Description:
The protein has helices spanning 2-20, 86-89, 98-104, 242-276, and strands at 39-42, 48-64, 67-68, 71-76, 108-111, 115-117, 120-121, 134-137, 142-148, 151-158, 163-164, 167-169, 184-186, 192-213, 218-239, 293-297, 303-304, 308-317, 323-329, 340-343, 346-355, 362-371, 376-387, 398-399, 404-405. By secondary structure, it is an alpha+beta fold. The strands form seven sheets. Strands 5, 9, 10, 11 and 12 form a five-stranded antiparallel β-sheet that branches. A five-stranded mixed β-sheet has the order 17-23-22-19-20, with no helix packed on it. Strands 1, 2, 14 and 15 form a four-stranded antiparallel β-sheet that branches.
Amino acid sequence: MKRFFTILGAIALMAGLFAALPSVAFADGTPPPPPDEVTATVDVSTIVFGSIDEHATVTTLNAAGVTVDGMPVVAYVHSNPKHWDPKKAQKVPFVKNYWSGVRSGKPFRIHKGQKFPDTYVGMAADMTEHDVALTNRVKNAWQLFDFKAGEVRNRGFFTGKKWKGDCANPKPSGPPTTTIDQVVVVKQRQSMKVAIDGSLVLSGSVSGMVSVDCGSSSATARFSATADASLSGSVSVKARTRQEAILKGEGALKTKLRQDAKLKLEGDAKLKLEGSATATCSGTTPPEDNPGSIVEVEDVNDVLYGNTRTWRIRGIVPEGQTATLRVSAQIGALPESEKVIPLGAGPFDKIVHYTAPTEGSSDTLTAKLFGSDGVKDDEKSDTFQLRPNPVDPPRPTVRIGGPQST
Length: 406
């Protein structure tokens, strides 16, 4: 037993000696493998955002507190356009009924006792516009209607001294969906409280200083990434129509969620930056050897022959370095001063001016980033369609007197 413990102690001593030896390369010069865990940390104070895009989306909206005696409230819409000349109004033809006049698409009159609808706009609980039933009857000798901008307008009746009973009726969109006994007429268009659910999405390019720890070695370098954040929430606004509620809701969502979303954006940026850091335990790459990168190039839509437009290139050059951005077009033209652009350390955002050729079906713009040692660090390109300019139609031939002329 004593001999057994002596052998065991010797093995443990040898293991300790080997563990204390520094890491060395293999015989063929291959560096030792990195440890199982390689950690990277980023100092939040070094995070720099490029342009941040934000987009608020309204998903649901419901009007609140717009019922009277259990019935939904609608707004009665008035219009005060310039009235017809009485003599011209009395020459407008009569029609069989209101709906036949609407289908005619021309100014029309209906006789005393015939029905026509009131005008109501968007006070239902779902904030959608709707029509109402034919419930009014002409109380005078006749009632005049005309059209403007897709709406049927009730122009009223001339008493001989003044016009009365006119308001703008929306163009009917189908059978009535709400009967008059289901609504309460409100003579003023008042705003209502609208509860809104929606989301805010932020995205942006980001760069920061990252420290990589490999146990026996470490390095500090600048890395770049793209970060995103998305939050959802509820807000309340006052509005008169569905469209107004959506526009106000988008603004209210941005105001409410922007600060929390930016904090979440910084958290995602920190994870992305740490995830982009790489190193090995045989000796990390010094900061000056870290390559720069082109983070984003603009997507170009179709360009007309001979037209000039801009192309945006964004990226980053590592700290303590310089670089050169070389931009080229496959068949189009670029100013000479914008083909080779010197860059200093840090984020860059450059715009070049591209002029399309006068023929061809497509073209490609390419941006290449070269380090101070002349080695290409990164490359991105964008291919887009070229289109001929529209051709004006030929002028019509007009006969003046004898022979035809153009």
